[in-house]
Write a structure and sequence with these properties.
Layout: H1 15-27, H2 32-77
Helix pairs in contact: 1-2
């Protein structure tokens, strides 16, 4: 996957977070910018996963409710006993 074009920005961080970011970047042998970018990518992915899970739960509940509400009609259409 091609790397996205980077844009230079200026941000302000508390000193302790800056030291932490620099230490983590040094551990990973990367730049501060790359470290912060990686963390933001991970945060975005985490939020997208959470939204997907929420959507799957919603649609699972909807499907279950539909199945429950239509089981009698389905059983009648198939000439089957819905209580089985």
């Amino acid at each position: 996957m091609p790397e996205a074009q980077s844009k230079k920005v200026t941000i302000s961080l508390p000193e302790d977070l800056l030291r932490f970011a620099d230490a983590k970047a040094a551990e990973r042998k990367t730049s501060r910018s790359a470290m912060i970018s990686e963390l933001l990518v991970e945060l975005r992915a985490s939020e997208q996963d959470a939204l997907a899970r929420e959507g799957y739960r919603f649609y699972a509940d909807e499907a279950r409710a539909f199945a429950d509400s239509s089981s009698q009609a389905s059983a009648e259409a198939w000439c089957d006993d819905p209580s089985r």
